[in-house]
Structures are given as C-alpha cells and as structure tokens.
Input
Amino acid sequence: MYSGFSFFLVFAWSLSFFYPALAHRPLRTPVAVKFTRQLSLRELDRLSTIYYFDQLVDHNDPSLGTFKQRYWFNDEWYQEGGPIVLINGGESNMEGNSDWLTNSTLDGRIAQDHNGSVILLEHRFFGLSQPFDDLSSESLKYLTIHQAIEDNVYFAQNVKLPMTNGNNSSLTPTDVPWILTGGSYPGALVSWTMTNQTDVFYAGYSSSGVVQAITDFWKYNEPARVNMPKNCSSDVVAVVAYLDDIFTGTNQTAIDQVKEYFGLANVPFTDDAAAYLDTFYMWQAMNVYGTPTATAAFYGFCDSLEVKADGSVASEAGWGLEYAIDAWASWFKNTTCPVYSDGSAACSYNTHVNVAVSEIDVSVGSTTSDDRAWAWMVCNEVGWFQTGAPKGQPSLVSSVVDVEYSFRTQCINQFPDVFTEYKEPSVDQTNAVYGSWNAKTDRIAFGTGTRDPWLHATVSGDGSNFVESPTRIVGLSDGFHCSEDSMLAGDGDESIAQVQEKVLTAMGTWLGEWTPDWNHNSAKGSNAADGAMTGRSLSAIYVVVPILLTAILTH
Output
C-alpha cells in the first residue's frame, strides 16, 4: 500500500484527465531507459537528430503532393544485409522519444541482435508531421487507417536512409528484411499493414496491439477492476452501483445531493458528474518498473478508501458502502474538486452545449492537437469509447457514461461541422478490411499483459479467436500496457522476460529463413484475414471512400 501521497501529484494527474471531450488514447507507455553501455553526448545528439521524408498527402491521388514526415534513426549496430526495424510512433508527438531507438526497448534489441538499424517514424497528423497547416475537418479527412498503412509502405519502399557509411542504395524491402513494430494503436497498425500489404514487411512485432475496433469498449476498465487491491475494487464497485441507481433514477433531489457531496454542485448534468468520478485512467500509465506519479495517485486513492486513520486496513471485502462513499468523497474533494470555505466548488463542466466551429482550436502543435487528431480516428474508424459496464456487471464507472455520452463529448463537440447526432464509427468495416482478431498474416509476434486496460482489444482479449502458430506467436505476461517493450520491465518481472525471449527467439528463426525472393513465392493475400480483401485489391475501395467522405463533410 502507498500512503501519504502528494496532493499536488494527484491534482496534476486529475487536471490531465478532466478534458471530458478527449478520449483516453492507447499510448505506448514511456520506456524506462536502461542502456547496456553508456552513450556519449555525440551519440545522444545523433539519436535526437530529426530527419524528413517526403510523404504523399494522399496515396490515392499523388497529384496532391507531399508533406514532411519526421523520423529518427539509429544504425549503430548495422552490418550489410541486416534488417531494418521500423517503429511507427502512433498518436503523439515523437520528439523526445529517441530512446526507443536503443537497446532499452525490444525493438532495439531485435535490431542489435541481428546487426540491424532502427527507425522511429512519426504518424501523419501527429506531432509536427502535418500534411496541412491546420487540423480542420477538411484536413483530417486524410487521416485514415488506410493512409497510415500506405505511409508505412511508401516510406519503406522509397526512403534513402542517412547511413553512417553512406551506403543506402540497397536497403529496400526487396533487398533486406524490414520488420514493422509498434505499441498500442501502432501495434495494431503492424497487423493491419501486414494483413493488407503482404509483400512489403517480412516480419512484425505488435506490443499491446489493439487490433479489434470496438464501439462500446466498457472492458477497458476490467483489467484494473480484476487486478487492483481486492478491498479497493469491492468498495468501488459497491459505491458505483449505489450511485448508478441514483444517477439512472428520477429523483433529482437525490442526484443533486450526490453531486454536492462530491464537490460537483456546479456540474449541471448527471452524465458529466459521473464522468468526473472516473478515477481509473491512472491505471493505464502504471508499469512494473515503476511510474511514480501514476502509482502514487492510484494507490493513494485506494489507501484513502481502505486504510483508516489508525492504520487498520480493510479485508478483501472492503469496509462497505457507508465508509467507502464518505472516504471517496473526501479524497475527491481534496485532490480533484475542492470545495472552498465560502461553499463554492472548483469543478464546473457542461458538455451539453452547442459548440461552434469557430470556438474550436484547429491549430497545429497546440497542447490538444494530438488529442483532436486521435478523436477523429476514434469517431470515424475505431470507436474504443471507454464506458461504464452494462447494468448487472460489476463496474468501476457509472453506466450513464455510455456510448452516446462519449460520442457527444469526443465527436459532436469537437467536430460539429461533421457530426450533429450519434453515428456509430465504422468498426465493422475496420475489422473486416484489416483482419482484427482474424488476421492470419505470417511472421508476426504479439505481446501484452493481463493488467493492460487495452487487453480486450488485443488478440489475447475476451472474444478473440486468434490462433497461434509457429509463424504467429502470442505472449501474455503479468504486465501492463506495452510492458514487454521495455527491457528493464523484463528485468523486474519474469513473465515479461519470458515474452521478450519468445519474441526474440521467433525473430531469430524468421530472419534466419529470409531470402531476397521471400515475397515472390506466395500469392498476394493468402495470409490475410478470412473474407477480407487484401493487398492492392483494396485500392478501388480507397478511391471511392475518400470521395464519399468528402461528400459527407461538405453537407
């Protein structure tokens, strides 16, 4: 148990969450850096050097020109014929993440073990890899899974890498093996890319890859509920069930009393108040090698419920509803929504307002630009709305935080020129086209942890029918989100170390079998998802879809 946690520490975490219009992104967990040797200042400077690639704005219409896509590069281990490891950075700014290029990560270890190079590629529309000078809806129509997949492919086939020895003339996927890697959403991109472009990337490594698009992703909080301290989960579930009965009822006086009790008197709508009480976003940032801010905040919350002033600790059954709701309200008002001496409350939010397009920040490089770009993908193609569990299921979050609420806050309020009412994201199409749990691409390694909040969108999640084979391996550890990508995490947890060894062994086997004509010997699409169209046969679809999307955006 953690106790005596800092008010300011938790308050900072609370501020980072309470933009209810923004979705929790499945970000790759920051890597705890552990180098097997000391890096010189010159080497550190080299790894932080930014390179630029002329990427196509629209792979369906090259006449629209190119934009500068940023990437970082490390060839310290490279020997002729070695593999190229391409990490897609995903849904955030990649500047400051050059440690991903080192042997502190599993990606870097793959390159080091096989005399390869490592590239970190910034995803279109995130960071400063921007096709346009704004993030308007008109610009964002070029932010799709299809375009991201084609970015990976076009980059691999056309980049001239800044090799230290100057020899970059024979490093295309037809000359050396390219390995596509990524964690979280980019982990899904690994599988999606290899499913639909079967002749480019020889192998792939997907860390916590969220391959299954899911609209109502209420199971996001299940790994936290199952793995958090039992006394804490027992009491939280009891309090949420009690509040849910009130929030879904018709007694407005009782609802107002609950809001006032938790310092939410200035939050006029019940669903906004319920969303404020979702404390469990902290779980995603935790990891086995120690993430002090998230760990202190999460276990500090549990301590406030389960450790009394005299030091006594509740059993696995918890203290019960009456004590727990008092303790939760006290913790919440002390850390997140303080009530001042004059009786006024600090927290006020209302998502039930009509947001004008002119009020929305569409600038590139702002503090919320990555969140806006991610919301576009959530609202259109992948869903993953983190909601309360269905009635009758134990839950950490109220059921009034449902899909409609999430869509209003994340989609209608951010893109009022596109969405005026609920419209389900095209998750069925995403899953059908890109393989999801049914992907059968070869030479791909998946890894995730039982404590990962995104577990149930991965191939190890409930409902997955993914079949492991010698060319499609799955490693499940006791870790959190993308834990197995940190070599330091493997030092501290044997189950993570076993997954890492499984991935490294498989990569060694597959690379040992590589020949220059590997992609000439199999029929295109033979490894793809059952029933899914694959490879270049998708091009017809993606000529039509942007036209339809443009029509939607302009009406």
Notes: DSSP finds 18 helices and ten strands in the chain. Strands lie at 51-56, 66-74, 84-88, 117-121, 178-183, 203-207, 214-216, 383-385, 444-449, 472-477. The longest strand covers residues 66-74. Confidence is low (pLDDT under 50) at residues 1-22, 522-555.
